[in-house]
Structures
1.
Amino acid sequence: MRPLNRPAVRRDPAPSRLAYRLHRLALTPSVRRGFTVGLPLAVATLILTLALADADRRQALGARVAAWKLAIAQREEFMVRQIAFRGGSDATTAAIRERLNVDLPASSFDLDLAAMREAVTSIDAVREAELSILSGGTLQIAVEERIPALVWRGPEGLVLLDAEGHPTGALQRRRDRADLPLVAGDGAPEAVPEALAIIAAAHPLADRVRGLLRVGARRWDLVLDRGQRVMLPETRPVAALEEAIAIHEAQDLLSRDVLRVDMRTPSRPTIRMAEASARTMRQIRLGELGGD
Amino acid sequence: MHDLYRTQRAMRAMRRAAMQRGVIAILDVGTSKIACLILQFAGADRPGADDGIGSMAGQGAFRIIGASTTRSRGMRFGEIDAMRETERAIRTAVQAAQKIAQTRVDHVIATISGGSPRSYGLAGEIDLGGRHVRDGDIAAVMAACDMPEIGEGREVLHAQPVNFALDHRTGLSDPQGQFGNTLACDMHLLTVNGTALSNLLHCIKRCDLEVAGLASSAYLSGISSLVEDEQELGAACIDMGGGATGVSVFMKRHMIYADSVRLGGDHVTSDISKGLKIPLDRAERLKTLHGGVIATSIDDREMIALGGDSGDWERDRRKVSRAELIGIMRPRVEEILDEVRARLDAAGFDHLPSKQIVLTGGASQIPGLDSLALRILGPQVRIGRPLRVAGLPEKAAGGAFASAVGLCLFAAHPQDEWWDFEIPADRYPVRSLRRAVKWFKENW
């Protein structure tokens, strides 16, 4: 009696030559890496390439992505519904509104704050602007305005200038800003700080000052009423003006019939008199000399 | 001779390349089992690698990352008998080890246990003329050893310088840089049967592996099982394998003699099989579970069921006493030990200062072997286990793996062999240089 459960053939535990070689190949580092990294990558690339080869599918995918983006951008949390201004006059605010020209409500993703800030600061009246989107859908624009310091009668009419010479806006009538001094002449905006210093120095004559005239874009004339002018030098004009005022206070110079006080050479002030007075003066001098 | 020199040097270069790559396999092709260990060498990033002293005397330099054993097939007396079968067994072992190590190995260091190794002691001498010994002199003195008649079809497996003598001082391990008149050298030459060797090489090559080194199994068991002072003072290591028993004698840390007896544990198994009329695998099981060599009175009463599934109930129910089993095993073990004794006597082992004998190998695990060996081999006998190396699994730490562990040590620190020194050039470069100088002198 032989037991029936004995296996007919004993299995050979040895790997076949092919199995042995394949196993060794699988254990080769480069092959292993190729299998674990390279092959999945290649398959993924292949699938993607095949899927995107169809133009319709590409378009559909693009549309879907765009829809997703829109859905996120249009969420209530990201919507901007109003603009709040901080600082700045009504005229400036209106100018900014006109310049920005944003359609509200808009998604905060669509607002390019840097470009908007650029646009706002390009307005003459705005010195500095700060834009921020606040929670609650508010676009806040904090504006620091330029403060006009002078009125310039330029080639294009009356222009307001701030203390740095930057235009802040046009002026219709001189009357509107009678409180500001007037300057005129080419190149006046470039010398505004100097002009302000001269005007400050001319405060003893304040009621008589009509304005400042830039001559040859290099020096100033202080224009007074009755057609009088104080011609100031290119350098140190304030000192020259103070000297002229000192002469005026001592000898009442500007109350006399003088047309020009020439301070262009500060060490030698010169005056030009009105023609009639000059003739009268001459007669008096001749009488004194007993000539003619 | 030069051919061998070249192949051995090529193997050395390959071993170095494998160590550079960091992974090398150890293949112990024995008669009863084939063991494959995969060593990983730590690179230069190992802490303390630059101080020149490795941890654990340099054995910390490697770690075993894969180990597998398989039953050997197609082997007899440590030689390949059926190459296809052996190749399959090697493939099994290598594949399993690679799977454990999760890496591929291309280089393998192998051992040969059979091939009837034969030892020769050579002596060479050169005249130095009172100057110091240079690198080339070592090679020259080794080349001065006259080659013995090793016989047709035999190959040199080891050629190790074991001793240098300078004038009247002998026992120098490294004479380089010392002054003297005559430099003499003793060399130990081990030859094996060329066919057995080339069969093994061919078999390994058929498994797509490159051989990066070859060593005798008797030598490897010695370096793994003998402790340092035994190697220093003189000891014999007896590696009792399945089909062959290797004998190696060490003195001053060098192997000075090696031999092998073509008897082993498989013969004990076949004796049991014949004596008790049971199949070989049953006999092997009886031997490992109940075997012994010293019978005591209790063994008469301990009955062992022979078992078996021959279909004959009467036959399968037989029982033998353990004393009977011992009675079968003991004469064969005695015969093996007697053979070993005869080899040691022939080698002059009695003249060594210390006559320590260490038994190792799979067959050394028979209970009572040490007391039997005491009577036959001499008073100083112990059963040895191989050194522990990092990462070696516990099941591969027994005496049966002595030569595999020895191979690991050999792979990490091979001993200087004759072919590690530059072959002495026949003054050819000097002469050509002189000729060039002469040509210059004549023409200018």
2.
Amino acid sequence: MKRRSFGRQSLGLSAGLAIGSVQPGGWLQALAGQLQDHEENASDSERILVVIQLSGGNDGLNTVIPYGDENYAKARPKLAIPSSQLIKLNNLLGFHPSLKSLETSWSANRFSIVQGVGYAKPNRSHFESMDIWHTCHEKKDRTQSGWIGRWVSGESDSESPDSAAIHLGSEPLPLACQQRGVQIPSLASLEQMRLKSKLPQGPAESMDQAGSLLDFVSTSTQAALQVSERLEKILAKPDTSGDFPKTLLGEKLRAVSRLILAGVKTRVYYVTLDGFDTHANQPDIHASLLKQWSEALSAFLSRLEQSGHQDRVLVMTFSEFGRRVAENASQGTDHGAAAPLFLAGPRLTKLVQGLHPELDDLDDGDLRFGIDFRAVYAAVLDGWLQADSSKALEGDFRSAGSDLRLFT
Amino acid sequence: MQQANLLRGQDLGQDRSQDLGAIDPQMAWSAWEPTPEEPWDAKRVRHLMRRGGFGAKASEVKQLLDAGPSKAIDVLMGKQSLQATEAFEQESGQIVSAVRSGGNIQSIAAWWLHRMLHSPSPLVEKMTLFWHGHFATGADKVNDTELMVEQNRMLREHALGDYRSLVQAVSKDPAMLLYLDSATNRKTHPNENYARELMELFCLGEGNYTEQDVQQLARCFTGWEIRRKSFRFNPYQHDSGFKKLFDNDKIESGEEAIEAVVTHGSMPTFIAGKLVRFFVFDEPDCPPEFLAPLADEFQKGQFAIEPLVRKILSSKLLLSDWSRGKKVRSPVEFIVESMRCLQMTTNLDRLAKGLDGVGQALFNPPNVKGWDGGRAWINSSTLIGRSNLVVDLLREPATRFARGSLDAWLKSEKVSNQSQWLEWLESSLVSIPLSPSDRELLQTSVANSDGGFDQWRRMLVALSQNPKFHLS
């Protein structure tokens, strides 16, 4: 039998409280007492990272558009966005019109595009490529652990009552957040975590060897009951999250802002927006997804600003790949390779990082990458979360982005 | 011989934790046979019904006990209850004709749940669910309930048939054509969506084809369209030029291309691996030496599915105690098994909606890869959700036990106190033994709360929060 305290990894579990050591009926009260202390002492200084994953492969070429390059309109006879509709940044680049609501962010130097992000030998399978982004490894040298999961297991703040990372969404926990021995809670929504029939039972002890299926379900159950308890207290406070668009991503970012404003000590939040696999009828679908993203993000950023948290939070948006440069016959695009990645928050050095990939020097019809995605992760881990990126990434990628300097 | 002992499962606690490496692959898939130490008993029958169906009603346990291990799979396929099948199909047909064109996907999901709960051929429904997760198609994108019903029927028709015909049928299935955009695949600029997933997810697995193959295969499927909700070949949109797929330059049509994909050397292993994970154990990934005997069988049998599934379900690996607790119950299994064992009926539309909330919306898998299964079923949200789903089911006014009240049903089952009740639940619904401390915890929590329920229902809620309840 193995009992483990997994304090820092489990939202709602104080470090001093060993699971299973409290008699049935007693642990909830013990937990409640500890939580109160923590809330009163909550400090708001720590930096937070919010990761937004655009699932399906966002068409980067129609998001940050090289309208100044004649090859763009040639490759996209039906799908090219007319330059009159673009939000122009300079003589070469313009944003898709759906990004309008983010204008205040880039005018305030709080937005950054990292151009041509990808990796060598690009994989065009959604699932493989997403796994590469999540684990930072190709299939052959991969374990079931992701970069955020590994970052969490290296965090040593055992005083925190909250999980270092949280995934918000009804899809399974992303591989990026997985790591054996670490429980990162996955919440479909804050409200959904309310237990309808509470029983005064201590969580069952894990009776199996560490790492087994039963051990996993046991520790997950313990974590779930404790997160539920912690959230109940947070939900009992007035909701100050403010106005958000009534969209899937809007709701998720509203929940993140509610947790941040309530003083939850989680450092990394992970959310996804699906639907970017635009093989057919791309124009309307893509425009509406980009609008959903930019409006939810802009509502989130302005709520942070109103509440004085704006200098603590960095938002990073990525997708598993961009799309083929040439359009297909279904008014859509097929799976591609390199694409821009987006950062929003304080201390960003410039609006455009790196060069737009050449449209006349393609790799099997796809854009070549200029910056390895792991170099961006490394910069965010070292420069923003003040962690040791080589541990979380299982490799030193600090120089993989050549002269990448994201933060002042 | 140590390995033989292992698979006879003389020491259950030890054997469940045994490493696969200690088991001989050939013996693993040989037919299980009863011994004095390991008899064909109710416990084993229930285990088989969990894996090869959706749990067992008391009458079905008896039916399988009488049939014996050699006829058990026939029973699961409904081969011994032809009359019941006819009556059931009539009832199911009436339900679906009332809802098929209404556009409400929850009603369609409710119709399928009714099939899982009441079909005399549970293995056929289980395999239909397997193929639904394998050839995952989402109703949200297809946006036509009638086409989703038709696809479901097609999958059921081929569920234990011939894999070759199944892939041909799926490739021309209107819901699939819409879901993976084949319907708009034209010769000028082929759309690669279906071609890629056919190889990556449906037949071969990633790494067993090249990007060149994706592009060539996409060209073979140009001109495959939908007209009036049916497949149609449009020769004007078909690219009939020279193509080369897997170094074969004799391939022209989509049908020929499918044949080349299905007969590709990596297909049998890929499908065997998915079946083993679905029926036998979630993890680790099944080692190649365990897949080889199954892949051989599949190949020799000209890709007939039924013999392969029979081999897996009658095997020592599955029927010995080794495989117990080696799978996480999916949300559908979790709830349908509970309802079948307790002879429950309820408002199935609401239940279908409830399943959506715990990660398994029928007809709306998360993406073309289907449900990941295993550990991916379990997280903070789904665990709280599973317990809440049980609470909702018990609060639902339409919920009945054997068409009556829970009290009357308990009386008929001769359950009159909490320890009898727990014993009843454990033997019918829990795959691995509860420990004395599990039992104590369950009894204490039932005694010390009301939670708005009587003690019988509280025990069900308490059990839904016990980790062992989530394993099969």
